[in-house]
Amino acid sequence: MASTTAEQWNRVRFLDPGPIVESLFLKLHLPGEGAFWARYTLRRGPDGDHGGLWGVFSGPDGMAAACHLYPRDQVDIARDRFFLRIGPGELSMGRAVGTVTGLKSREGSPLAGDLAWDLAFSSGPHWTALPFDWLQRGPFPRNKVLSPLAFTRFSGVIRIGSREIRVRQAPGMQGHNWGAAVAPRWAWGHVAGFEEDPEAVLEVVHGGIPAGPWQVPVTAALVRMGGREWRLNGPLAMARARSRVDGLRWVLEARGGGLVLRGALEAPLDRTLGLDYRSSDGRIIRVVNSNQATARLEVEGPEGVGRRRLHASGTATLELGGDLAPRDLPGVVLG
Fold it and tell me: Is the separation of the CB atoms in 225 and 197 below 8 Å?
């Protein structure tokens, strides 16, 4: 049976030779309960091959996070289909399971209990910041960012300590990124459903393209609303986009296909977590992530779209990494 685009985009690149860091992840928002984020990571470097299983839960009472690293003999990767097992975690097309122990709070204090999940997810639209599909296969750019499912819905169960949360059609996404090393700087934002349009989607990625000793800033965006889609990831659109990060606030403007997008994503400090990613060369890259951020957008489109304002209060995701990550948040989890 022919594989779907989502399954093809989820092909694990760790099987290819050479140094690599790879992450397959999912995140979802739970109305009235908070948000959940899981990562399945792979790294090859001077210290050998490792798999990592991450879990982060953000709820009304605070945040809980953990990461466990596993040696190569506890990692299983299927060659003929999308299937990845890392320790007790498994990820395949449509299902994610896992358990992490040794939870820590946002401040780094140990928390009792485990975080476990068993989730099913549906098909959905795919998107990549890369303007051409063939760029997935070559050495340029060094870091690839794909969303095999830019919007999907999750059902199942999440357990944190003695608490059990039944998940029913929760909005979210599933992503995949990899490269020879962790990128030196990036910003990533995502919204799966706005207050004015529960089916609308925003995904936006900001980074740099190496040009000799410099980094040329580029920003790509996906906008889906009202049954239509705009992919603002052409070379000219990415180069002309404007992006400014100040602390935990990201202001951006992008345009293409007759659409103009202006907006801001902002994360509250007490709902933002500091993490440390170990790169393939041993460097530690600081990352801050909030799945309870706020997004405010103004969209001007062609005839039939007009001008629209979209808001997501506490249900947006904002991630800042490398040089763009504020340094005043401690890294409470390393992996």
Answer: yes
